[in-house]
Amino acid sequence: MSMRIFKNILVGALALVGLLAGEAFAQATSATVTVSAVVPKACRFYSSPAAMVIQHSGGLIDPVSVANATGTSTLSYRCTNTISPQFNIDSDITWGSPKTRTVNLVGAVTAANLPADITVTATGGAGTGLGAGNDKTATIGGLITPANFGAAAPDTYSKTVTIDIQAIP
Residue 143 pLDDT more than 70? Predict the structure, then answer.
């Protein structure tokens, strides 16, 4: 065998060994990872309610009427998908939907109290998500009975009421 043929065979063999060794090192390996995410229950208000006037008509209570004086306002809320809200009024110890609480409206001149029942109801139902376009409506109702407004002194009565929202636990 000539030296030239021997060199060619040797170079070819080394090239083949290098190719095979390269393939052994280029083999892929794999690993697994567990991926998780937690979406908690949540509800949020997305608008402020308009001022509510409890009245019979024309913004006034008819002091001789035998009918309740009423008023309504609305605000929008969103809750995580399938979650229903519950409400609290003026840091009451209980939550609910609907939630009713009697609050005292205070006279601007007399400082006398005029009891009014405030009710918040999730008329929009369970949430469909917190993203844009998923607004639901909560209705705020106010009611003053004839027994209460019939005994009240003439005055303008008011109170700022705080309404809180949370997901039903």
Answer: yes
